[in-house]
Design goal:
By secondary structure, the chain is of the alpha/beta class. It is about 30% helix and about 25% strand. The radius of gyration is 23 Å and the shape is elongated.
């Protein structure tokens, strides 16, 4: 039986917990991201009057809620050593982790990244995978080193990106896959049969945080590219478009394959405006944008 400490938040934290709960391994403590996000005094009142889902979940399972202000602080390191943890698992986190601080932990720190590394390192892999039109994504458990998401791969599973999926759909699917995978990861780790695999740097991509510019749909692109971008933003962000230096919201959009009607218009050009419906020419068709 391996003793596991988890650091994380949200759906991925819960998925790792659920996966381990139904294995022969034991969660000896959790460091939730609330500890890093809020000051000690602010968190005190928040935990009393408006506790997060993470805290409520941890309490319901009677798992130790580790008290530390950073994953890299001496207090946290001492606590996980006191808990005699064999491994630290990361399920979503906002700090850069210093792996050298965990040298006394048998298996060190293992991150669960919701992408098929080395592709889509960094932030918001769900958004970028869908926006880029990837046919598949996945989950990668990898060793943490001095670079973001660049450590040796230990375990990896693929997910087909279905045409209906938005970013939330892909996220929930990835979390479910991680929940299934974590048991096998720990079993193989305990048996000593995991073989770390170096990432191929030439195939690596690193994604940035979503910026305001990423919310703006380029109407000169193809129907497929525009549809992918809108799905990638949903449901968290509302898609926008720019016309004549003004920004407009998109409430609903319809796509029509190209025909002779639009052949005399340039890509991105307004063909017709009728009340709340704006019709534009894109690269391979016509776009109807409805604004209620």
């Amino acid at each position: 039986m391996l003793k596991v400490v988890i650091i994380g938040y949200g759906e991925m934290l819960a998925s790792l917990v659920e996966g381990i709960r139904f294995s022969n391994h034991k969660i000896v403590g959790i460091l939730r991201y609330d500890r890093v996000r809020f000051s000690k005094s602010a968190l005190f009142f928040k935990d009393i009057f408006n506790p997060s889902k993470d805290l409520s979940y941890i309490k319901s399972l009677k798992i130790k809620d580790i008290n530390a202000t950073s994953v890299n602080c001496k207090k946290f390191i001492k606590q996980i050593e006191k808990l005699n943890a064999d491994v630290v698992l990361v399920g979503s986190w906002g700090e850069k982790i210093k792996p050298e601080l965990f040298k006394n932990i048998k298996y060190g720190v293992i991150n669960c990244h919701p992408a098929l590394l080395p592709k889509h390192r960094g932030a918001n892999p769900y958004f970028w995978a869908i926006k880029n039109g990837d046919e598949k994504s996945g989950v990668t458990f990898h060793q943490v080193n001095e670079k973001f998401d660049a450590g040796d791969i230990l375990f990896q599973g693929a997910i087909k990106i279905e045409p209906y999926m938005n970013s939330l759909d892909l996220k929930l699917k990835a979390c479910k896959v991680a929940e299934i995978m974590v048991k096998d990861l720990l079993n193989d780790m305990e048996k000593g049969i995991l073989i770390p695999t170096k990432q191929i740097e030439s195939k690596a991509t690193f994604e940035k945080q979503i910026s305001p510019d990423d919310l703006i749909i380029d109407l000169t692109k193809t129907i497929n590219e525009i549809n992918n971008h809108i799905r990638a933003l949903a449901p968290r962000f509302k898609p926008l478009y720019r016309y004549q230096n003004k920004i407009y919201e998109i409430d609903k959009i319809n796509f029509i394959e190209d025909n002779d009607f639009s052949k005399n218009f340039k890509n991105g050009e307004l063909i017709k405006e009728d009340g709340k419906i704006s019709i534009f020419k894109c690269q391979d068709g016509i776009i109807e944008i409805l604004n209620y």
